[in-house]
Amino acid sequence: MVFTLKKYIALLTLMFLTFSVKAQEDEVTFEMAVSKEKLGLNERLRVDFTINRDGDNFNPPNFEGFRVVMGPAQSIRNSWINGVRSYSKSYSYTLMPTEKGTFTIGQSSIIVDGKVYKSLTKKIEVSAAVEDPNAPPTAESIADDNLHLVAEVSNNNPYLNEAVSVVYKLYVSNSIRVTNFRPLDSPKYNNFWSQDMPVKQYSAQEGTFQGKPYQYVILKRIVLYPQKTGKLDIEPLSLDVSVEVPTSRRDFFGRPLYTSTHKTVSAGSRTLNVKELPLTGKPENFTGAVGKFDFSVTTSKKALNASESLQASVKVSGSGNLKLFQLPEPSLPSALEVYEPEFDELIKTTITGMEGSVKNNYTIVPSYKGKYPIPSIAFSYFDPKAEKYISIASKEIVINVIEGPTNGGVSGSTTPSNRQEVVSTGSQFLFIKLSTTLQPKGNNYFYGSTAYLLWLLLPLILIPLAILFGKKREAIRGDVEGNKVKKANKLSRKYLSAAKKTLGNKEAFYVALEKALHNYLKAKLKIETSEFSKDKIAQLFEEKQVNQSTTDGFMALLKNCEMARYSPFSNVQMQEDYNTASEVISSMDKQL
């Protein structure tokens, strides 16, 4: 008999389905289920042992810590749905605890077709007696037992400026469902440099909590660098979670019905014990770098002419607190003209901390001919894993200026001893032209000329302009509000310039930066110092339709100015704040 291709495929599909159903029927499952995992001393516990095949010689466990009140009650369920047989056999016990504590219900066993099958164990926690032992558990109590918010800290005992990651996980058991959540109180990371790593998409993952299977979702990830030693607290994260929990009721198909409730969960406060960096072996040139780094000094060229330029780069790369230390500066000969360095960074933040590189690019212009060495530069950092300081020194680089004036000035030329007399031949000045082609010009008189008429009319033109200029000056003097705005704007630029000059001096820098921001607000929003409050400023920004990113940047600068009074700030942080201030003011100028 010849089969077509379609009939052949249909036959294979039918055979595959038949074998699948047979395999499912042959698979034996033997499970234990309990009515609750926590109960009072005066409550009862129901334990069910269920198998999907008919078996013999059922052997119950030793119910240590419990007294059997009823059981075993045996029940059998046998049904056919769409031609598929469903069978289950259960052995049920009702237990009463005999004392408080945590007890384990051991394995039970049963024999099916000559093979022994065993159930898993369960831990039961027995607490003090409850008021109403017959009352069903509330939705809130079920949510309490099956919902947990945990803050996982990578290192509870870090060094100063060592990276610490905090991951907030919401654990949910399989018996309840989470429909929504919203943060109630976000932690403030005082005394830490922090970098938030936003979670773009929430995805459930399988895990365990306190030895039990759970699903968890990562809600928040953040990397912290402690800026002080001693015990530092991480404030808790709190959430309001909408939960659906099962009830004792069932629908038409026997599935449990759910009820909704709200549950407030908190990750709890965590405390880090931050260690001081050791004094033993601490190099003199140590500027606070903590991590694992490489260090190099390179130049774009080593041979050039005077007045040409070259680029010298001082670079640190690796993993650690790349934004929180100062790069070493090269010591160059005075004959080399050096411009202010351009700072460049290429940093990404992962869950383990900052990675990448930072460097200063110097433009150097030699003035004189010669060879000029760039001496070796040393960079030191502390390796928290090795718990020791490491110093790296660059190699000496020699700059060869091939052509140009010497350092002592232009060298004098030597005069030969055998001078020759200069003989006049009478034709030494033949280069002077004796005959010319000059033509006489006609008589041009000033009177009646175009210039004469312009000078005559000039007073008539200047008098109206002088009147208009005077009125304009009077109007400017009378505009008190406008003059205040101009004065405040001028002061804002002045203090911003003063802040740039005091980079490296934390107190003077942030005082000048704060004055610059305040005077800028006076100039642009026309408010007085007495009205300065973050809520008021945010309200005015919203009215002026300033975009949110610019508003957040301005508020962050004000916050840093306040924190600078009691928190340490590095030179790199000051440079970042100054750059941010320039960008924010420029952006607000365009928007306002």
TrEMBL record:
The membrane spanning regions, by residue number, are 445-469
- Transmembrane helix found in the keyword field: yes
**Per its UniProt record, what InterPro entries does this chain match?**
BatD
Write one Pfam family the protein is assigned to. Answer: BatD
Stretch forming the signal peptide = 1-23
What are the alphabetically sorted keywords of the record?
Membrane, Signal, Transmembrane, Transmembrane helix
PANTHER family in the record, alphabetically? BATD, PROTEIN BATD-RELATED
- Any idea what this protein is called? Aerotolerance-related exported protein
